[in-house]
Amino acid sequence: QTPVTIKGRVTDKVKGQAIDGVTVVEVNEKDRQINGANTDANGNYTIRVSNTANRLRFSFIGFESKTEAIGERSAINVQLVRDTGQSMSDVVVLARRNDQVSNGFGNTSRRDLIGAVSSVKGEVLEHQPATSIDQMLQGRAAGVQIVTNSGDPGAGVDIRIRGAGSISGGNEPLYIIDGVPIISTPFDNSANGQNSARINPIADINPSDIERFDILKDANAAAIYGARAANGVIIITTKRGKKGRTDITLNSQFSMQEAPPSIPVLSGSEYKVMRLEALQNAGNINPSSPELQPLVDDPSYSAYQYYQNNTDWMKALKQTGFAQVHNLSVSGGGEAMRYNFSTSYTDRKGSFINTGNKRFTTRFNLDYKVSDKLRFSANISFARSKVNNHANYGQGTVYFLGHVRSSALPIYDIDVNGDPLPNYFSLPGVHGGMDNPVAFANTVGNDAYSTNLKPNIRAELDIIKGLKYISNASLDYIGENGNTYFPPEATGLIWNDRSFNRVDTRDYERMQMILDNLLTYSRNLTPNLKGNFVLGNTFNTFNSSQLIASAYASASGNLRTLGTTGGNRQLSSSRTTETIVSVFAKADLIYNDRYGFNFTVRRDGSSKFGGDHKYANFPSIGGYWRASSEPFLAKLPFLTDLKFRASWGQLGNSGIPNYAYISQFVAGGNYMGNNGVSQRNPALNSLRWETSESTNLGMDLDLFKSRIVVTLDLYEKLTKDLLFNLPVPSSSGVVGGWNLSNTNASILTNLGNISNRGVELDVMVNAIRARKAGDFEWTMSFNVGRNINKVTSLPGGTLRLTENYANFGSQVKEGDALGTYYGLVFKGVYATDGDAVVRDAKGNTVYELDGLNPRKMRLLSETGDTLKGGDAIYEDFNNDGIINDQDRVLIGNANPDFFGGFSNEFRYKNFGFKFFIQFQYGNDVINGMRYYLERMMTPDNQAITTMKRWRKQGDVTGMPRALNNDQRNSQGSTRWIEDGSYARLKFVTLNYTFPKTWVQKIKLKGVDAFFTANDLFALTSYTGADPEISISSFGNNPALIGVDRGLTPRSRGFTLGINARF
Amino acid sequence: CKKYLNQSPENSLTGDDFFKTEADANAAITGVYDALQACSDEFITWGEFRADLVSPLSNSDITYLYYQLFENNRVGSVWAAPYNVIGRANTVIEKVPGIPALDNRFTQEESNAIVGEALFLRALSYFYLVRTFKEVPLVLQPPSSDAVNFMVPKAGADSVLDQIEADLAIAERDVLVQFGKPAETRGRVTKGAVNALQTDVYLWRAKYKEAAAAAQKVLNNSTYALVPAENWFNIFSQKNATESIFEIQYDYQLSELNSLRGISGAFLMNPVLFSYFDGEKDLVRGLNRTYREAGSRTFWKYTGLTTDNIERPTNDPNFIIYRLPDVMLMCAEALAHLGPDEKNKAGELVNAVRERVELDPYDFLDNNAPTGLFIELIIKERAMELAMEGKRWFDLVRVATNENQPDFLISRVVAGRTVAERAQIRARIIDPRGWYLPIHRDELNKNPRLEQNPYYR
Predict the structure, then answer these.
(1) CATH number reported for the structural domain that contains residue A64 in this entry
(2) CA pair distance A792, A721, nearest whole angstrom
(3) pLDDT at B64
(4) Mutation for testing the A interface, residue in B13, B57, B67, B248 having most A CBs under 10 Å
(5) Contact A669 B139 (CB under 8 A)
(6) For a designed S-S bond to B314, which of A89, A90, A106, B252 qualifies (C-beta 3.0 to 4.6 A apart)?
């Protein structure tokens, strides 16, 4: 039959107005869609139909669909009727029931889910100006603790899904985008790497491309990812084209971010008084000594003019941040082919001068149906970004430096008369380097560029009914190029210093290639028994290479490449390869929508392990029972759904460096010009996978047709054979990696168990439901998770770790949680010298052997410093008169008692309003910023709170005396520990959808605008700038988490955005 | 599949690939010397800074040694560097003997010589450790795999010293007398170096006959000859002098550096040493040689290139472990404890050292002189000859222990402090157990089988 063209007009039955954007589809007798078109602004449409026996279906959101037979007609005008409230909610419920949860290798309907999965849909996150996709999830899923590292643009996040289960194997989840695992961590995670500008690969993904997140929390849900899934899996599904309708969307956002709050510090003159006291208290009373000269006001001193200033370093360093984000997407398609194309540009200016990032992304998702049996899809994404950072090379963050630099010193040089000079002031050595952070910020170049390419191609072939073969090939490429340059204005170095005009260049490249082959079989085995089977394998090759070069003494500050440098050139490069091979099988059986059962097993082989430990098996089993389908409950009218779930499974973790098990000998050490070779690490023949075994009990409850939806999960996750970098005594001769010195030597080993037990609750309440479109509607959702972390077994009971922060020696102890702090108990300040005497258990003064003089309290040993008036009082638990390791007790725990989020959304007519609160409760924080700003023992400037310090005998205060270069008052103690609980109003958003009639006049399909304020305020008793403290461990130390190290605090931000659809 | 999963590193050799050829053996022993280069800080800290010849500048962070104030977290207690030498030496001792069977160009003698060098370097490291900490873990197995027990408890001082003697006996048999390159004869282990260390070890254990016999072998060795007086300073400035037996080599042109130049600048010479030079009018070793007057008396041995004011451009002086006068004086000290003939010989040796630097000989040092007087003068001579070479503290501990005169050490160290500090310093070293350092806290944390030294428990 020859095609026929049909024309017509679609109008609103009640109002008589034309409706724009109505989808008009030709459907055949099997209700399959053949062809489609849309109405224009006047409601007119034109469609070519292949067969007049077919029918036309007219559908539009907010209206009931209508189907018309074509017959002999060439013009078909249709009137659509608005949906009533009732049918709207039916649509919602239906949509929810059919909600598909992605496990990366395929979808499961939420109704049949057995494992623990939290899902977050893209639309929930709309209007939320997050800098990267991982930040968007904060507080959205129960049991998923997400803490952003800092307020800097592009900063990474720490994610703990059901607590930290590993010590040295990493705790970050696996990210899967559209079925493909991606590289998600920055290239160089070492302390040194963190000093340079670096790329967070997750931040290169455009948040607007996201359709939904599914967070797989237990072993059953994540079983199919076996060896890589011990820390949970975050599945990201990007938007795909929809049939029959072309959408062009343009959206722009403009944000400003207030400069970060600073902590008040001493003025120039107050600083000098404090320093003078500190030095005099330490016994330096000679006014002509080099330390005291700048502090006593002596105009004859040669550098006198440099110490007469009152500089607010923070003010000079910080700025109001500004960001703009533009996003364009085009999506649509017909029966055979659908597409979604998007491109975005982001430009952010950071909260500190000369910081920021830029990002350009493009994504193209294509689905092509070749025939009824064969389908292809391709997802290609590309991103290019640039990050500008401060180079701080171990000196601390710019936020920290801005506080501790002496306020008496100037930013710009001054002559003897006190008149300003144009160049930066530099007096190297006052603070041990980087004396002028403003000069550093403005003159040091520290940037990195990344190129990110992720093509992924998938073919699906139906072999026979129900049997499908799927092949998936993908590549993830990240190239990163970084440059750092230190001009003399920043370093204060002169031309003959080795470190003068230093140039650093680095080139990193990482590539992951994955090939998956899957066979799935899905059919009804009996009328009541549905079966779904998957058999698959995957090959994963991961290549990584780096080239690092540095050199010194370029001839001029404008020559910043290696070729222009004079001396001390250093080069290094390396390449590594990791390979993983896996096979897996999965079976799902569902009986009568009432009982579900699944079984998964995956076997992994990894190049990271040797000998007998190369392969490991990860099984999982689970089931559900839908109580609400039982006859005795089916009668209850309010009970829409009630389901109980139980599962058990094992997952693996292999987050260790490549080749770790192989004994390696490296060149490096020379003697008399001869090249030496020595052992870098012992052979680790017993190194094996870390296994996490989890058990989950869950309940899904749906009341009053989804008015109230509750998900409750109880879990236990036991991590066995922990991968741990065990420090070994230097007497062993084992060295600490590439530097070949054994001062901090360690070997990777499997030891001990950690358990995480907890409960998660997710509640969604549709409090007020709209009867019809435009009515008032109120939805709220609430989630809370409680996790108890405990080291359940550890050979030897206690591991003492060398790395420490702020005098907190740290340890991992059997029975404690990871992140337990030990230290002294601070009880105030001795008012007089006479108070600092030893007392026995009854409180009586203890005398020296002569029986006359009271014994004095001492620090660390019996020959250690005596405590005096103005020194900190520490609890002497064993009454031996010596404050030492025996007096260190458990004083804090970095793990929160519970955490979660609470969001509310209101809609009325064209307005929408939502707010979101994120909270955590009961965690302790080491306030490292306060430690550095109140210890008064170095030339660092101090917080204004130190004005209350002890100054003379008899002073009663909680702030000890200033004491230069003396550890007496800066011991790791309860003095620095604070409650880190907080509830933060994360987002408040008002959005407005412009009326259709108005929009149609300017030839658009729709326009809406929003205004969002983020981080408006936090309810907390924490005294630092920001209670949201990174939970990544300090250095390599699992015991030191929750340390406020002076990363950029979050500040209030405001965003205005507009969306236009064409 | 198996092949796909077997990946090996490109940037390094795997344990299975190494120790196959002569070149591997040479590279491995060079690695041991490389570790030794990192020890000069420890050797000078342990041997010099606690004693009485030097005082730190007030603003330096190494004053705790001067104050004898040893908490268990002081950097002075870090023993990682010598144990690094021991670990690498253990690898050589285990693996190199297998190479001749694989590489026919590599003879058994060559293999033995390399193993001998490693045995000496291991012995030398243990000797520094045992003198500094007294009881230390005796590790003789290389850290080749995780099946090795890394948590080794302390061994008694005597068993460590017995091991040192046994290692040196093998080394003495196998190492070369000289190397092809003159600098390597001073910079690598030779028979002379082994004999010098044997002298030191036997003397430390008060085995005077054996000490004298070992020293005699050095004195008979034609490789070593005293440098004439006018060239005394060149021993340091020009390196590898004829009297040098073993010195750790550094060269800034090869980027092999240390911190001796900087560290010696952070110390002043004490009045006691100045009074020795001044009292004897020692022009060969005193002003502008051992020290310089530039506002204060700083050390010039490692700093200067000439006896004028020309400084070394960078941190690359050699650190001398043994040179001939050291062995001569050790020999004299040993002989002074033996019979009358040996005492005569001891007097001759002391006088030979003095005459070389144009000082008057002691004509009263003969078989009638009491041993105590010998020791008194030998230790003084050692102070003048070997100041800042990391010998003084060990000299004081050795004499005070072997002669059973704690006050020999205590009074000297106390006298090297200001009047106000003396009572406190005396209290801190009055117990001879306090002459040995505490084991560092980090080591105790990492090794639960390690016990803190008695004085610090």
Answers:
(1) 2.60.40.1120
(2) 12
(3) 82
(4) B13
(5) no
(6) B252
